[in-house]
Design goal:
about 750 residues; alpha/beta; 7-stranded mixed sheet; disordered N terminus
Length: about 750
Amino acid sequence: LDQPTVRFIFLHNTLPAALKQPTTRGEYKQSSIPSSTNMSDVENGTKGNTGDFNFPKSSSSNGDTSNRTPRNKKKRVRPLNPSNDGGAKIIIALLAGAGAAFLLSLLLLMSRLESQEFENGLLNSNVGGAQGVDDTLYEEQQEMGGVLPLPNGAWRKQHDLMQQQQKGQQQIATERQSKLLEKIKGFKDSNVDKMNKFNKLFGANPLDPVMKDAHKELDRMQGVLEGKQKNDKPMKKLDLHQQLADAVHKNEEEKKKQKAARKKELGIVDNVALTQGDKVAAISDEDAPHLQPHFPPLPPHTMSVELFGEKIITDTLSHNKPTMAGIIAILQRFLQNLHQFLKDHRDSKAPTVINEYFALVTKYLVPLEEAYRDKPVFPIREDGSIFMSLGAYRDHLLGETLRQAFKNAASPDKLFVGAVVQNCFGIDVTCRTGVEVKGQDEHGRPITKISDREPDVNGIEQFCDDPEYTKYCDSGQIRALYVNETESNGPTTARYFASKLWGGETYFLQADAHLRFAPKWDRLYTEEAKAAKSYPKAVLSAYPPGFSEGDPPYKGGTVGTRLCTCAFSTSDVEHHIIRINTGGTCGENANAPTQIAYIAAGFFFARAEFLTDVPFDPFLPWCFMGEEIALSLRAWTNGWDIYAPRKNLIAHQYRPGRMGLPKFWENTGRVFGRPGPGFNTQLQSISLKRVKYMVGYKDTTKEALEDLGHSVVLTDFQHYGPGETRTMDEFLEHVNIDIEKEQCGNIKWCNKCLMD
């Protein structure tokens, strides 16, 4: 428990010792917990959307005097020695999914009730309530030998003073008791809807009775505080970890039986590849052992280490036995520590945040990078399978995008998805909209507003709950990493995470999470890539055409765009970074795809070897611009040629600001207590220096970075910079960029479709 990880709940010793172990007045049994118990992860809120990252402190320091020991008196032994962070009465860690957030908040409440109130008497008596204070005062008098006679009638004054103290302390205890009761009742009432949602989310498993038992214990605590019942029933131990482990094992065995029955029904022998759209994927455990054990895409925040143990990480990092579950466990551990990092640096300046973030990446992610440097993490299967990388930031179209992708695929059994779901999950935090335009003022200027809103929809849940598509989730074709909105820091990081969910598929496709797909898009893109002269080192990329919700089904087939132009941004926010754009077209009768200059981050398609040659960079946080010029330069200098697909096969929802959708830089401002995009702009200005150094900006040399104190941006640059097949200067000449003058020239060969 001293590891900074989010874990399942051992619902053991949950209630205060006084509630668990009935005693006579003035006698307290000494309970114990292992000395290694560390509650810092719980108090620090290691899991969950924390909004502004402010955590309530113990009320025992707010002027309360009821727990003070009289002068010259020996302090009595307390039932449990509180830890430094104010909670050591229970062992709490976070359970998988949104249901765990409920249990965590419930148990934290119970922990705080005990840690704050045990010492001031509210829970010190069999009777309970404010009577416990009277018991305490009585015992203290008895320890002094009762009320002793004092000379000159002073005993009467002393007696009156003690009576006043008793009344004052009893009044304090009564007020505190009322607040506790109000807190418990409010907590229970506000979580009725949550319990219903969690029951729906988890279905029939041990969580349901455990949640009910915990709620029942709150009822009992309420009764004790109200003096309506005695503490004559110890709480039973609920070994939730073992129950969940048993449930996972049982669920896996059931899935195997269902899969075997389904294969028998469809007449499948020895996992022969399937082609019918209604059949499940046919990849055997023997062919792809790294996909076992199967890590479920639901519920959100299921912790891989808690399902499969620490060995899942050590095997992946140290024993050359990578598994998808191990990869996810490593990413989850980074996110847990990122959460604490953001709290610790809420008030830090931008350079400090960047320096410490790079140190965090070096500690938790670089070991994974080093373990599989210059080689694929998993063997590449030559079965024509496609891995689709999706970074979804609070995206309401993720579920529909997945439906469209599988529905219109020629071979849905060969389609695998890695989705990074960055959501506001709405557990004990208020979600917010983006900047919405509400009208115009008298001068015609827009009136904008940011409002509270419901928690984001989970597109993975929407897709997996659809009976038509559930089989793809059960078969392991959907891999999900859940990221609380508070830990989101831009598309570059999300795409890094998503690339790590690749599991050995033949092709790699990166896209946004708000798309429409043409019929047989997967087969047609595969054929288009193979038609390129440079295949297998060919990358297809384009800016897809747009669509609006409510449009008829997308058919595709229009002439594809060509990324043949660029410009140095003049925006103060983008710091003169190179932005790419479209150029000419080749008409409808081209015999084969022809080369273009740039890669679009929102859509590209290549063989999976691309991930080995051009690994995604984990050192580009808080960036929105710059990833496309970096991708283009790195791919081309590593020997990959870039092609425009001749026909459009996907459509993209372009999202102007007036839609009022949330943006990650708004979240950055909230997390660091500086609302608005300004602080994200400061962070981006430093991270972008890594890209500008790569491209050769004259004001971003190594010496200049050292003078500015930003040399940290060159961390591990040798692994994420230009390749060795071609040089950076050759690339700039290839795309006609004058970096000295910061000018982009005409690329004739690209606009005229002259290079095959």
